[in-house]
UniProtKB/TrEMBL annotation, chains A, B:
Protein name in UniProt: glyoxylate reductase (NADP(+))
Cleaved signal peptide residues: none
One cellular component term from this protein's GO annotations in UniProt: cytosol
UniProt cross-references to SUPFAM superfamilies, sorted A to Z: Formate/glycerate dehydrogenase catalytic domain-like, NAD(P)-binding Rossmann-fold domains
Enzyme Commission no: 1.1.1.79
Organism of origin: Jatropha curcas (Barbados nut)
GO MF terms, alphabetically ordered: glyoxylate reductase (NADPH) activity; hydroxypyruvate reductase [NAD(P)H] activity; NAD binding
Top-level division of the source organism's lineage: Eukaryota
Length: 322, 322
């Protein structure tokens, strides 16, 4: 076994409570500096070790603030073990010339599968039917109310990155008519582009939120967009704060929206209690990107990017900061 | 408006309780004979009118027995308003040279959507997560257990007709590896063919049942097949009796199967009570083929086939009886 001293040093940046197979899988290849291995406060740990650290693995959503970065003057690479990177001070990284990679490649297929699952569930009322059957209502009340067909529906995808493109690929096979909104038109994408999410909502039966949470996308789905969507369906596998949740709840309760499939919420793990009794809503607990298979893909991606960095090879899934 | 006497006569074969927009939509084009429009018992109604009837529209699952056919010596065509035709005496129709059309074309996309929805729901535990969130367990119990990824799974489709082929089209877009079993190999299908459902189960993580219920397919998923599938998942959008339900329940309760997504049951509307508390099972109430859009497609298909028959034009979705 190689001596740990010969291995490249990587800061293992995590919360105290976070445990993952990641560490076991990475430790044969890197000298992992984990502040929680010591009794020291993190700030004093970083004061001692921070100067030499060139690469950092960010586990889950552990925040990386400007203050954290002040301890790490030699930092060149942040490997984020998450799809979203809104917990990282992106502009400060940009200013310092720090490269960030995310894990959306590892998670994109899972997130897309979950988005499609939530959508079919809302339209065809699967979870509601499951409640109906489990409650013993079928023999008593007869036929369960009809759902709606997926094929032919106009689906607007908000955020056409790795997740959005996987959603499009799947829903095209169901016969949906797809359009998308993103910061820029993507020349290689065959679907209609909408620069404005309001216009996309007007022309859609369904909106699927797959974008990152940034200052620009915070509450991108506001009251005006919901009005434009009318009796449509919103599916959110991005971040809770993409949607003005208070208005979403009001629109759902008042029947102004057709339904919603939500994996993320503004104040997780708290879900607005008004939603808990609605039959046209399907709720999951921020699990869109979590399967054993995606964890395995995450480990492989983190390993590959860290190895590539220390060998001066090209990185995968680099985050563009604009 | 054309006098009813000039319109072709069609027997509107239905149960007393069955109501549908079908009749309103067909009546401008055909002279519909509906036994329930009179006070007569059906047998005496058929004794009077049966001799002249060349075409019959079978609404829902109204049985057509040999006895029914004895009243209808001139019958040439049965237009079934359902995907399955196991409520019709097929061999007797074959003997008498009666052509049967079914409605699987109208329902195939809905049934395939529902099958995929059930599958994602079982694998990614969406209905179970929805129960977890609605019960207020997320803040109390923390992370909900992981589901499994759909991509890369080996999916065996049992019955590769109109529904099975639509399921395959959808699951290919999710990155599943597809194989199929049917009476005969289909030369145009690009996926591996298994003559034997046991061998298909051995090589599958998931079985999706899309075949008709016949003498040959009754309990096609028996104990041996379930053993061959191991910890896999069964999705049934065909008919309840395709599966030995007693054994299915036992295998699910004992954890010998990974899970099940079931829209159909052996003794509907009754669902085995042991299933009602299982978290790896998703239950819907025989709704796979019912949406307003598929009803509209059904009406169009029935109209088209009846018009084609009376104009000596080719029929759509003729049932092959072997």
């Amino acid at each position: 076994m190689a001596s740990m001293e010969n291995l490249p040093v990587v800061l293992f940046h995590r919360r105290s409570s976070y445990t993952l197979a990641l560490k076991d899988r990475l430790s044969p290849h890197f000298h992992l500096l984990d502040p929680f291995d010591t009794q020291e406060p993190i700030s004093s740990f970083l004061s001692v070790h921070g100067y030499s650290i060139r690469a950092l693995l960010c586990v889950g959503y552990t925040p990386i603030t400007s203050e954290t970065l002040n301890f790490l003057p030699s930092l060149e690479l942040i490997v984020a073990g998450s799809a979203g990177v809104d917990h990282i001070a992106l502009q400060e990284c940009h200013r310092r010339g720090i490269t960030i990679t995310n894990a959306s490649l590892a998670f994109a297929e899972d997130a897309a599968d979950h988005a499609v699952g939530l959508l079919i569930d809302v339209l065809r009322r699967i979870s509601a039917a499951d409640r109906f059957v489990r409650a013993g209502s079928w023999p008593v009340m007869g036929d369960f109310p009809l759902g709606f067909k997926l094929g032919g529906k106009r689906v607007g995808i908000v955020g056409y990155g790795s997740v959005g493109s996987e959603v499009a690929k799947r829903l095209a096979a169901f016969g949906c008519n797809i359009a998308y909104n993103s910061r820029k038109r993507k020349p290689s994408v065959p679907f209609p582009y909408y620069e404005n999410v309001h216009n996309l909502a007007v022309d859609s039966d369904i909106l699927i939120l797959c974008c990152s949470l940034t200052k620009e996308t915070h509450h991108i789905i506001n009251e005006g967009v919901m009005k434009s969507l009318g009796k449509g369906v919103i599916v959110n596998v991005g971040r809770g704060s993409l949607v003005d949740e208070k208005t979403l709840v009001q629109f759902l309760v008042e029947g102004k929206l057709g339904g919603a499939g939500l994996d993320v919420f503004e104040n997780e793990p708290h879900v607005p209690k008004e939603m808990l009794c609605l039959d046209n809503v399907v709720l999951s607990a921020h699990r869109a990107v979590f399967t054993p298979e995606s964890f395995e893909a995450l480990i492989e991606l983190c390993l590959a990017n860290l190895k590539a960095f220390f060998s001066n090879e090209p990185l995968q899934s680099v985050v563009k900061i604009e």
